[in-house]
């Protein structure tokens, strides 16, 4: 019987290409077949690049035959959230405000990816201008949650996650300003990785909050995220080195991140913590009161940056926006530049104080989201429920963006519930290695 590689991890697919078990064209055809069977593929992709992807796969195949692959991942298939510029292609940022916008350049991370021989299958849907954690977008499209279609897919990188989870591409590239890679990853049982702000280039990316935006991969395994991060950064692909989980030390925050979570999330977190303890790793519980202090400042920082990034375009045509998202943007109107600067100064002090408590630990562990995905219909019927659910979905993830940390979410044994790790700024490789150990331990125990 023929093996179907479309459901495997990116690294497994690359191995199969390397060993001539499958060709890049055949792999792409498997994804095209899955897309043709998926009834809601037009709710997931804004555009599918059938001809261009096939041309690139053929070139990759010639390189494979001649032993001239650009990298170990040459021939692997990516989807890109529709806020990355790809020259001469539409890039509309999930909003009618940018309808018909054509990119004039390639985003830097896209150039780095194609330089490794990665192939783009198409662009994927997102929430309006990436300003919502739910993934529900009545103005363009709402992708179906891959686990249960009637609930929210998570946002803002909704399509990037759903396309990856439904085996319509090897992995997805999203962006994360307050959780937009990690929430859809958690709600679709995937790995979502947020590097430290500034680690991956934002050149050629539509920005929401320029001081908080990050680019990040959504994948089926930590190993995939590790390699994809290195490729997007333009770095050499050294393998993940192994350590053992019992050498690691973790913190659990009892003041904020673990409070008021729904029953399923609580159960998933308890099981995950028990497993980590069984491995022999050390866990310390502590009140990290800097977290709630930073979260208070989010009310000024995010709306101010988001509104000032987009106000001209929004106010020229506000009726084109979904009202709850519009009002979230307009939350920035009443915030003065002085208030914004004061909040930033305060945040810098909070970051310092947080890092002092944290320096001898490998990561803070917590639930990724305090809630599981709500019903799409209920969100659309009730604006207050939409707003409340949106803030809850982002509650835990945005802590990493506020405190300038790097963060990753891993699937747990309960659907739509992620385990989140938060680590020090610029500590990407240690965080990915630690997450890799947890993922492996979870699989084997």
Give a written overview of the molecule.
The protein has 445 residues and is α/β, with parallel strands linked by helices. The chain contains 16 helices and eleven strands. The protein has helices at residues 10-18, 24-37, 41-44, 50-65, 108-115, 158-165, 182-187, 222-233, 263-278, 290-316, 323-330, 337-358, 376-381, 383-394, 398-402, 428-444, and strands spanning 45-48, 77-81, 119-124, 171-176, 191-194, 214-219, 249-253, 282-286, 363-367, 406-411, 418-423. Strand 2 (77-81), helix 5 (108-115) and strand 3 form a beta-alpha-beta unit. 55% of the residues are buried.
- Strand % is 5-15%
List segments where confidence is low: pLDDT < 50 over at least 5 consecutive residues. Answer: none
Based on helices, strands and strand pairing, what is the structural class?
A: alpha/beta
Strand order of the largest sheet: 1-3-2-4-6-5-10-11-9-7-8
Mean pLDDT: 97
Main pleated sheet? 11 strands, mixed
Shape, per Cα inertia axes: globular
Reading the helices and strands in chain order gives: HHHEHEHEHEHEEHEHEHHHEHHHEEH
How many strand units?
Answer: 11
Percentage of residues assigned to helices: 40-55%
Give the C-alpha Rg: 21 Å
Report how far apart the termini are: 30 Å
Tally of separate helices: 16
List keywords for this structure.
single chain; 445 residues; alpha/beta; eleven-stranded mixed beta sheet; 16 helices; globular
Question: In brief, what are we looking at here?
Answer:
With 445 residues, this protein is α/β, with parallel strands linked by helices. It has helices spanning 10-18, 24-37, 41-44, 50-65, 108-115, 158-165, 182-187, 222-233, 263-278, 290-316, 323-330, 337-358, 376-381, 383-394, 398-402, 428-444, and strands spanning 45-48, 77-81, 119-124, 171-176, 191-194, 214-219, 249-253, 282-286, 363-367, 406-411, 418-423.
């Amino acid at each position: 019987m023929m093996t179907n590689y479309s459901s495997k991890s990116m690294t497994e697919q690359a191995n199969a290409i390397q060993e001539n078990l499958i060709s890049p064209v055949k792999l792409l055809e498997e994804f095209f077949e899955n897309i043709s069977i998926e009834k809601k593929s037009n709710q997931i992709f804004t555009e599918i690049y059938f001809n261009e992807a096939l041309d690139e796969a053929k070139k990759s195949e010639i390189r494979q035959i001649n032993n001239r692959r650009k990298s170990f991942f040459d021939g692997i298939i990516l989807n890109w959230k529709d806020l990355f510029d790809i020259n001469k292609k539409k890039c509309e940022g999930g909003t009618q405000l940018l309808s018909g916008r054509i990119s004039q350049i390639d985003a830097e991370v896209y150039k780095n990816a194609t330089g490794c021989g990665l192939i783009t299958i198409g662009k994927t849907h997102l929430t309006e201008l990436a300003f919502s954690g739910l993934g529900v977008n009545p103005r363009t499209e709402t992708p179906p949650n891959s686990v249960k279609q009637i609930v929210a897919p998570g946002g803002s990188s909704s399509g990037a996650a759903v396309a990856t989870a439904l085996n319509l591409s090897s992995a997805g590239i999203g962006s994360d300003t307050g959780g937009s890679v990690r929430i859809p990853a958690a709600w679709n049982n995937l790995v979502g990785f947020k590097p430290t702000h500034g680690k991956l280039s934002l050149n050629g990316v539509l920005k929401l909050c320029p001081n908080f935006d990050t680019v990040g991969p959504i994948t089926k395994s930590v190993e995939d995220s590790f390699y994809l991060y290195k490729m997007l950064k333009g770095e050499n692909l050294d393998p993940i080195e192994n350590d053992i989980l019992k050498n690691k030390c973790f913190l659990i925050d009892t003041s904020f991140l673990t409070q008021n979570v729904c029953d399923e999330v609580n159960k998933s977190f308890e099981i995950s913590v028990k497993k980590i303890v069984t491995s022999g790793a050390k866990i310390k519980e502590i009140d990290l009161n800097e977290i709630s202090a930073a979260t208070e400042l989010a009310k000024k920082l995010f709306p101010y940056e988001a509104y000032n990034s987009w106000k001209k375009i929004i106010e020229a045509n506000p009726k084109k926006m979904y009202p709850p998202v519009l009002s979230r943007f307009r939350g920035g109107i009443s915030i003065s530049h002085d208030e914004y600067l004061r909040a930033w100064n305060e945040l810098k002090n909070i970051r310092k104080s947080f890092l002092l408590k944290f320096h001898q630990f490998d990561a803070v562990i917590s639930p990724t989201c305090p809630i599981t995905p709500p019903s799409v219909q209920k969100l659309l019927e009730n604006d207050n429920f939409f707003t409340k659910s949106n803030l809850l979905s982002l509650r835990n993830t945005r802590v990493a963006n506020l405190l300038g940390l790097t963060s990753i979410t891993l699937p747990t044994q309960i659907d739509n519930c992620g385990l989140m790790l938060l680590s020090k700024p610029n500590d990407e490789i240690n965080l990915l290695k630690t997450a890799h150990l947890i993922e492996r331990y979870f699989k084997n125990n």
